[in-house]
Amino acid sequence: MRVLVVEDERNLADAIARGLRKRGMAVDVAYDGDAGHEAAFVTRYDVVVLDRDLPGVHGDQICADLAASGALTRVLMLTASGTVADRVEGLQLGADDYLPKPFAFDELVARVQALGRRATPAAPPVLELADLVLDPARRVATRAGVPVDLTNKEFGVLCELLKARGAVVSSEELLERVWDANTDPFTTIVRVTVMTLRKKLGDPPLIETVVGAGYRTAGVGA
């Protein structure tokens, strides 16, 4: 899942980003409304965690512009004011959820995960291919009933490939969905991650390379 955190309190923004990354999400951070507005329309994010009172472009404007664009991106609005009137106003602007500060981090994570599931076409809660079973909610992978120990990035790549249901997923798409904006676009990290993932999954192979196009789950599709 790709998440953008737009929050001008740097310590809070960085803490949210660190916590979401530990949960396996790819997270970018913007510390003001101008940078947040630009980032939100340059990259396709699943969820934007958006502070309402931002310097530069106000959070309300970012939210309204995202809603007007028709993007599938979901918005979780944060604010120091938690009155009913403020929550209603935020939701009317196009926010999908609203969380007053201070908040429990576990609640923030749960809300981001729930919004992320709504940001993409519905996928089964558990993804399966042959004897491979992937449970994104619990971040558990097994093959033939045996647990497979995957890094966050390996898990993310495998999840994207299984959700594609046999369609080819390019390296660029995987880089955008699984890594954050700090990753070198010319890196070989996707190829290396797929290579190690194949080794961990074992035989028969479940991931195949489509030369010049990307990767797809083996034995599925044309």
UniProtKB/TrEMBL annotation:
Residues that bear 4-aspartylphosphate: 51
DNA-binding region range list: 124-219
Domain OmpR/PhoB-type residue range list: 124-219
Record carries keyword DNA-binding: yes
Gene3D superfamilies, sorted: 3.40.50.2300, 6.10.250.690, Winged helix-like DNA-binding domain superfamily/Winged helix DNA-binding domain
Short name of any one Pfam family annotated for the protein: Response_reg
Keyword annotations of the record: DNA-binding, Phosphoprotein
Domain Response regulatory: start-end pairs: 2-116
PANTHER family: REGULATOR OF RPOS, TRANSCRIPTIONAL REGULATORY PROTEIN CUTR
Official protein name in the record: Response regulator transcription factor
